[in-house]
Amino acid sequence: MIKFGPSGLCEQFSQSGMKHTVEAGKWLQGLGLDCFEYSFGRGVQIKTDTAKLIGEEFANCGIEMSVHAPYFINLATAEEEKAINNHRYIFGSLDALRAFGGKRCVFHPGSPLKASREQAMNLLLKRFEQVLRIKEDCGYSDLLLCPETMGKKAQLGDLEEVIAMCSIGDDSIVPCIDFGHLNSREQGLYHSKDDYKRTVDRLIEGVGEKKANAMHVHFSKIQYSANGEVRHLTFDDDIYGPEYQPLMEVFAEYRLSPYVICESAGTQTRDALAMKEYYNTLIR
Ligand SMILES: [Zn+2]
To answer: CB count, 10 Å around CB of 143?
Structure first.
């Protein structure tokens, strides 16, 4: 089943008089949403007991949880010390994900810094293989790791690079396709349903139907410049896009079951609901 939900708590949540994440499960259920992404962008800072409490409450409300690993991860780093830090960020996120009772962990793959793009990508794949071995050894084989397509041209994580990352792992490595990011790095890639189809068709061809069907999706409108992503916008934007409707039409036509997280700036819950409502009009 396709799922829709927001990344993090929004203005609408606090305006409804609530404060703590644990209260968000019932609130999202009441709105008719299906999932929620907890961001550890600035570091994994949650007590296991708190995470368990939140996870139990969300499970009772039928809201699936995922996590976003810290932004500091760079699997293309040449420094061994930083490679060890990567492990701390990734496995810290998986520990928390386990406590939440969730299945998916999204991460930003990394940047080349001083190396050439090709060298950096080779190193990244080598380091990612090491992460996957540790993941297996630590008993995390049931949790999904989702390398994300990135919004800045300098970052590793165009569609082909994410396909390559997903091709070295088993079924627990699933792509996170951030359509706003791809739209930004390509200066406006998505206008029609066919534009989205090209990405989804290439993904199916590249990672296979099973992984493509289970893909993680980030969606928001994003302002961009020549170098790519500048900042996240809301669905009220009508300059940068991309528009979500043609993508929902592709998901409905292909009968895919992605896990769709909305990352709008402050209106992510409202906008996740807009996507779900539009999708539902297509499958009746
Ligand atoms: Zn991200």
So the answer is: 18
Using the mean position of ligand 1's atoms as its centre, give its distance from the Cα of residue 284 in Å. 32
Give the total number of structural domains in the chain. Answer: 1
What's the 114 CA to ligand 1 centre distance in angstroms? Answer: 23
Taking only the tens place, the pLDDT of each residue in 148-167 is 999 999 999 999 999 999 99
Domain enclosing residue 7, as ranges: 3-282
**What is the CATH number for 41?**
3.20.20.150
**pLDDT tens track for 48-86:** 999 999 999 999 999 999 999 999 999 999 999 999 999
* Ligand 1: centre distance to CA 68 (Å): 7
Task: Tell me how far apart the alpha carbons of residues 200 and 255 are, in angstroms, rounded to a whole number.
Answer: 12
* Token pair recorded at residue 78: 């040449």
107: β partners = 147
Q: Which residues contact 137 (CB under 8 A, 6 or more apart)?
A: none
